[in-house]
Structures are given as structure tokens and as C-alpha cells.
Input
Amino acid sequence: MIRAYSRASGVRGIWYEIFGKGTLKGADLQVHHLIEQRFAERLGLKPNDIPAVVLDRTFHQQQVNTQLFSKLPTGRSYDPQQIWDAYKLVYGPGPVGLNRPDWLEAIWPYFQRLGVQR
Output
């Protein structure tokens, strides 16, 4: 299930409504923003409006974040095409991809409106 996640103004977002207070932490789960919040402004998004999914904490940290940071290291600047290409590698099929085409489909409109090539 892909939903927007918000922490703004004390609003806990849809995940709070679904899981209740403390359940994410107690269940060893984390919210994964399908587009990293550090790219929100670059893509014309509000950080709290980025689509997100709930993942197992270990999978989130050891698989998803590790792959994303290896393709898009911090401390550098990326254009929207570079960001999309990295997400295709990480979320896409293949020996190192996470095989999550649903995640790619969820974020594609944010890149498409910027003229990014699929």
C-alpha cells in the first residue's frame, strides 16, 4: 500500500491512522519515502507529500537505503534524470534491483512532469 506520509503540524498522516501510535516502532517497521526527502525541493515536491510505504526496519536499512545511497551518494547534486535513472536501477528488476515496479509507477508522474525520459 502506497500512501502519502506527513509529519507536518502534528499531523501523523495515514500511517498513524492505519497502525496507531507507537505501532511502527514496536513492530520494527519504518516508513520508506519512495523519493528521498532530500530530493523533494529539486523535484518541486513538499517533503511531506512524497509517496511512502511501510517496510521491515532491517530490509529498509540494509537493502533499500544501502542501494539508494550507493547510487545517489549524499553531498552531490543530481538533476531529475539522474535521480530517476538511479531509482530505476534500485526499484527495477535485475540482479541488484528490488523488483518493485509498483514503486516506480508511483513516483513516475513526479519525474514525467519535469520532462524526464523513462
Observations:
- The first helix runs from residue 13 to 19.
- Confidence is low (pLDDT under 50) at residues 5-12.
- Helices lie at 13-19, 23-26, 57-71, 80-91, 101-112.
